[in-house]
Amino acid sequence: MPDIHIERAHALGLAGARALAFKWAETAEAKFDMACTYEEGQQGDLVSFTRSGVNGELRVLPDRFEMHARLGFLLGAFKTRIEAEIVKNLDHLLAQEDPLGAFEKGVSEATARHKAKAAPKPAARPAKGRKA
Known about the structure:
Elements: E1 3-9, H1 13-32, E2 35-39, E3 45-51, E4 54-60, E5 64-71, H2 73-76, H3 79-95, H4 99-118
Antiparallel strand pairs: 1-5, 2-3, 3-4, 4-5
């Protein structure tokens, strides 16, 4: 099985990292149909995630995140692409001055776009001078 290992330092402290990781787990469950379990500890936390074709863990520490994921046969063919996307998203979140605020803003904007697309379209108005 192909493996992905990503480690990123941060300056959020355990409380900030915990909040970010919890939001990540909620998003992974909603967006990628992952089953996530979150275990809090005194020195750090562990988020375990699984779904068909992938399983892994995200270690949440006061000074860094450590992700280890194992990809199944089919997803293994996309390892480089999957790893690049995870790195890009994680680096983007960590580069924000307020990572949780930026994350929540992104989720809110995405939700608003989804609702706008799903909303029923108003009926077309008849042209001036014509009766409906």
